[in-house]
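[SOLVED] Predicted holo structure with S-adenosylmethionine

Edit: marking solved, answer below. Original request kept for reference. I posted the sequence and ligand SMILES and asked for the 3D complex as structure tokens.
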Amino acid sequence: MEPLRLSTREGYDLWSALYDGEDNPLVQLESRFLPPLLGEVRGLCVADVGCGTGRWTLSLADAGARFVVGVDFSAGMLGRALAKSRELRPAPAFVRAEVASLPLAARRFDRVLCCLVLDHVLELDPFFRELARVLAPEGSLLCSVMHPAMNILGIEARFTDPASGREVRPASARNTISDYVMAAGRAGLGFEAMSEHAVDEELCAVSPRARKYAGWPLLLLLRLRLALPPRAR
Ligand SMILES: C[S@@+](CC[C@H](N)C(=O)[O-])C[C@H]1O[C@@H](n2cnc3c(N)ncnc32)[C@H](O)[C@@H]1O
């Protein structure tokens, strides 16, 4: 059966009911390698852009960030995040919006996270410009994304709809590493770190789905900061 191809937003609205319960090797690998890049967040102001069901939003609030906001355009994903955050004090804020048009104040955020979203972003220039706009002068932008090598295997974000048994593919963008590097640079961002992470035994032990990609790079991580003053950007 041909996969059902939906817009990114419609795809995630449908995926939201299953997303947290799945064996997702990319999520497992990212959960291992992102925290050292993120560092201490206690007392910081943090935006989680493309927050989905709040995987990072909630843990940032729990880790003592002073203010945390999660942004996503999928009502389904945001609904899950909100339901899970009800017990948290202080609870993070959630806003429904496009990643390239954030209803957030300029230069406010010490950390901006954008996790597993970039492979859905076709227009990288306005995306990076917008994230750079909300970043505080000494802040860091952290992005995680499925490694573009997965494109060679024809792998993109997908899930199986249990109701129909059909594979569903929210629209994805086949960006390359140089696309990310060049667009970030044009937005006035410089690289503090960039790393690539392959499927290893440790991952296969916790995520059986990972085995068929053993040895392949699965995850790309970027840590960026403002390299140019706002007026020059
Ligand atoms: C793979 S999920 C990742 C969710 C979360 N960041 C995580 O790591 O668990 C991708 C999320 O990005 C959101 N997204 C994709 N493109 C977007 C856009 N243009 N504007 C806002 N949200 C977007 C989707 O709705 C989805 O919730």
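OP edit: The longest helix spans residues 25-38. Thanks to everyone who chimed in.
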